[in-house]
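quick one, three chains, predict together pls
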Amino acid sequence: MDPITEGVIRAVGLILSGDPEVYRIASLSLYTAGTGTILSCTWSIPISAVLALRNFHGKRVLKGLFNAAIGIPTVALGLYLYLVLSRSGPLGSFQFLYTPNAIIIGQSILVSPIVVSFSASALESVDPELRDLARTLGASDLQTYGAIIKEASWGVILAVMAAFNRAFGELGIAMMLGGNIRYVTRLLTTAIALETARGEIALSIALSFILLAITISVSVAVNLARKPTS
Amino acid sequence: MTRRISGSAITKIEASVLIVIIVGVAAVATYAYVTFQSPGRERLIVSTTTSLYETGFLDELKVKFEAKYTNLNVSFISQGTGLAIQTAMRGDADMILVHDPAREVQFLQGGYGVNRKIVAYNFFIIVGPSDDPAGIAGKSPAEALSTIKFAGLNGTAVWVSRGDDSGTHSKEKSLWKSIGLDPTNLRAEPWYLEAGSGMTATLKLANEKRGYTLTDIGSYLLNFNNQNIDLVKLVESGKSMLNVYSVIAGDPRNANLTKANFEGSMLLIRYLVSNEGQDLFANFGVKDYGQPLFKPYLELVESNSDPELIQWIRDLAFIDGSECPDQDRYNAAGLYSMELTPPVLAVAPFAVPREIESWILSPKA
Amino acid sequence: MTSLLETVDLTKQYAGVPVLDRVNIAADPSKITSIVGVNGAGKTTLLKILAGLIAPTSGRVSVHGRECDQDQLRSHCTMVFQRSVMFGGSVRDNVAYGLRINKTPNSEIAEEVQAALAVVNLEGFEKRKARRLSSGEQQRVAIARALALDREILLFDEPTANLDPANSMIIERAIKESAQTKVVLLSTHNLSQARRLSDRVIHLYKGRVIEEGEAASFFASPKDERSKLFINGELQF
């Protein structure tokens, strides 16, 4: 049987049998990517609002930087963060390294440019008259921003989805900052890397199908929630 | 004036559905994550080699050790020996379990480690394609490498190196040096390939290229049994093929290592040199491969069944006559009581009475 | 006697180019004041300054004799734009937007929304999706939205441009009704509309007020040459 077919069958088997380690690995991937994305949103969405809606010197340069940072190689970012989070580094007293928290931090930084750039784009494409409209109806500055963000909400949601997918499927940061420690920081991506290195191709393929299945399901679910605009 | 279509606002229903999805996913993830936690356990981080890691020995060690010491949660980080040592130097690991005596010495002398103990050993082997194009079967390691080099220059053989600064790579480099070749020059040769990866990946590359490579017995058996490779053992013995595993605890007095879990490290070290730990080494692999992948060092010394081998180990892995110099011992009561005194058998200028001889060699009380 | 709404030497420049040049106007309740002029005369800019949406380069606006800054103007005025922007959501969400910001209690909101929709002949439209309405209906919703706020000063910027006669009539009627108690300024380049609705007329040309006065006399015998041309439809920008 070719490895791919074997992999699919094994994937189904692993899911149905409720193999605890596989569930553990998958849920940890969800946990780190999800928490990392949400954490990123706390600063990324306000930044995107400022970037889209205010004018200041160097605005274009800043936008360009965020756009460029979208494609930062995960191993490079992982390496820098490793030195920062190391016990002998500046943030060493937290002892985050080799725990899921380090992965969450790393992934939140990784996906921030995605949230900022795509959200800013969505906010900018909102009708500029909306701002005047809100203001003439009595909205304060904050309420105006709220109206604009609400108007662009699907754009922002899609930005967040893209960010989540990126975090969920990345390897470099999880590996560098997590260490792929069994039961502690082994995620789907790092497990796939390990099993491939061990020569367990069928298992790797099975895990990769689970990874794809989750990514696709979440994306599809979110898109289904969106009714077609007339 | 053309009408500009506004952005897409979210309706209440869509928002509710989304929130349900997000909360659902979050709940599943967090629940599963939390139930798998090992609450209240202290962390012990051991950086170690890829070869030990890939055999699965460490998984078993973790289970048995944690069953005995329920307050500890051991994490093994597998990297090449070079990187493992660096990780410990940075304080990100509490102790190391490696197989590179030269660098272990540097680790101790650099003030990063204390309480080194040799725990196990096995042999490296040279493996290659079953048809053995270079004809090295049965040769000594030095002869075999020499032959491979000439065959390589002739285009009839290929050598695959780990190339990743690991313990195995160190051993390989020292073997090349022992026949007067500089491995850094060899890297430019077309018959010398560098995998830059762990042992399994290197073996698979050698398999693919029908080449020769140096490997530890554990990794070889693992991959051969899995049918990842069909290379065969060609050179199996010799003093120069000895592979010795040691543990060193991080020195808590070192500025980088103040947060290291020294007590936990000492517990693991003592465990590994205890009967239970040594039995783990002795038994691992017998079920799956018909032979143990490692041999316990202390049992060898206790039984004194092979003095020549003991001497080899000491030649390779001892530092100034012991496994750990005095100044690098710290809070190590009783850890070194099984030490041999300097060899009397080989260099005694006078005959030692049998009773005294056996008294000297038996473990001190 | 001071009018409720007055401007003194209102000027607006964009990069040195004057869009409004020392504009002085006055408006009172119970009268509809039209601001007429060709495209680009500065009507929209003037209205937006009065609405507190744009800051003037110099000059001042006063309400009830007191000078107001932008924030204060926004609390006195509300503006309906030339093409209406609808918030996503229902008609009720749109009309109630300003009321919600003011933290009007929900029970009152329902009444106010109903009343406002009645003025523009959109009773029963509360639950409809605002963006699915025709442009005429949307503009009427915009007007209901503005009326619901019950502000003293209403500003309409060419509110029936691009609308068919049926919608235009409904809107004009709503404007007339609201003018009974409020200050209403209406910009238009539609002469017939100006004739129909205005009590007073201000003719704006290249950012300056070149004529103002009672509507009847403006249309019957305009004093400025350019006003004459404008009324004949011959004035060019």
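The domain at 42-122+243-359 of chain B is CATH 3.40.190.10 (D-Maltodextrin-Binding Protein; domain 2).
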